[in-house]
Design a protein that fits this description.
Number of strands: 10
Shape: globular
Order of helices and strands: HEHHEHEHEHEHEHEHEEHHHE
Helix content: 40-55%
Number of helices: 12
Largest sheet: 8 strands, mixed
Strand content: 15-25%
Amino acid sequence: MLRKRYFTVLFALMLLVLSACGNTDTKDTAAAKEKKTAPKPAPTEMILATTTSTQDSGLLDVLVPMFEKENNVKVKTIAVGTGQALEMGTKGEADVLLVHAPAAEKEVVDAGNAINYKRVMYNDFILVGPKENPAGVSGDDIKAAFKKLADSKATFVSRGDDSGTHKKELGIWTAENIKPAGDWYVSTGQGMGQTLQVAAEKKGYVLTDRATWLAQEKNLDTLQIVVEGGKDLMNIYHVMQVNPEKHDKVNSKDAEKFVNFMIDSKTQDVIEEFGKKEYGQSLFFKYTE
């Protein structure tokens, strides 16, 4: 009888232990499931003001999704001329800037409107023109080419939008003491891609960054590169965050993350590789400080 009671108690204890284990497993499984299905925090939002060349070349289509995924940030990209992008930064209308007009950028940084100023990458400017090349320009001397264009009044198409490329163009005219005007000088007020299209239609000459040219070249069969490789044609891009001490509504946390992302070695490698497969050469080259 005692032995029977012993086994009865033992069996009851075993059932209790198994029940406890089952409850624990169920609780653990439920907890794990709840953790797994917990909603992801809503992404923060950040405004990137940048030049049209980074957009038209397709580079941002690669970099922005990388940044968004790594940081749970939704980026609103506003691609305009560098002058307008810098103005947005000065007014606190953007969080971070990616531009390519060093002299104008320095003014914004020196005025305290931007901080965390970093060099990111570079490519170069080139002069493209009609395949017939009526002005007969060639070589690597961009100043001599511009003088020849003005003397011959060959059709020249300018962005006319205060972009980094437009600023570069104006600097070359100024260096040669030339004030371009007249029917031969066409100002589009548009981005690089649209301006190249106008130049193709009018069979005119145009200063462009190489990245946009390579990305658009297949649609520009009336144009070719006529001047390239000169020391005056380097095109340097910088990234900077808008100063939160002057503009307290900016998203400085994500802006700082974006600056760090752009100069990170992994991102730099992506920049250097961009375009190689499709165009046979890099559209941009890494250039960190």
